[in-house]
Amino acid sequence: MFIPVYLLIQWLNKIGMPTFFRMAASAGLLTFLAIWLGGDHSMIRRPGESISAPLVVAAGLIMFLPTSRLVGAVQDAINGFPVTAAGRFVSTGMSFLGLVIGIASAVNAISLFGGPILDIEQTRFDLPSPLTFSVFMLAATVTFAITLHTKLVKLGWLVLITCSALVTYHLYTYLVGVDSGRANTALAALIIGMLSTYVAYRLHAPQAVFSIPALTFLLPGLSFFRGMYLLTVETNVVWGIQSMISAVSIVIAMAAGVTLGNYLMQYLLQRFAVPRNVPAEAAE
């Protein structure tokens, strides 16, 4: 299902289509395929097994969500660059608008042909065990890093950073409870920010090479999808805004945690680390 969407994205990139139209077309195709193939008369549906179209769409939205750009915008705002932050917020907002238009258009097109109806309540589900969650999120992180052409030697460090963040996330959730708010997200992002800054310093690589893929398991794709669907298709403004606020609060916690971790590790490196390309005796 994701292969046609990926090919569409590559073709739109090749012809130089702006991000807004790429987002709209990709989200529309993904939503259309998820609803159509997840229906009762789908050719790929096995008897006794259900395919949750909302979950498929929400998972696919992780490929399209400009979360890294939004995190960067929040980081610029935190670091005191309001003009750059404002530009990124506008660009990110247009990307989200493209996703909204694509999802709404696909749902309306399906309804015109008498296709199945998308049940938004299917987005409510019980979370898997921490081990299952961690294994699949690690696989998603590595896959995402490979698509960014990350070198093989850096993938091992990326897995280590992500594992540390996952352990922190689940340990805090276990100790405090599921009603821990956004503290578990912020704490995991803090670990990602610190470790990615340190590894980037040691390997002479950009910090974003490690921090952006490592944040994959924190992305609020499901909350964004619920909010966009409720606002555009079901026109439930109250619940839609609530879901969007929840998603944005997660992104802000991610950005704040990564930024704080970056600053803390930079201070520790400047305070205690031996300068690169300088012998230890000279540093003393």
From TrEMBL:
Gene Ontology BP annotations: succinate transport
Keywords tagged on the record: Cell inner membrane, Cell membrane, Membrane, Transmembrane, Transmembrane helix
Record keyword DNA damage present: no
Pfam families, per database record: ThrE, ThrE_2
Domain Threonine/serine exporter-like N-terminal: 5-107
GO molecular function, one term: transmembrane transporter activity
Keyword Cell membrane on entry: yes
Membrane-spanning segments: 20-39, 51-72, 93-118, 130-148, 155-175, 181-201, 208-231, 237-261
PANTHER family: SUCCINATE TRANSPORTER SUBUNIT YJJB-RELATED, UPF0442 PROTEIN YJJB-RELATED
UniProt similarity note: Belongs to the ThrE exporter (TC 2.A.79) family.
Protein known as: Uncharacterized conserved protein
Source organism of this protein record: Rothia dentocariosa
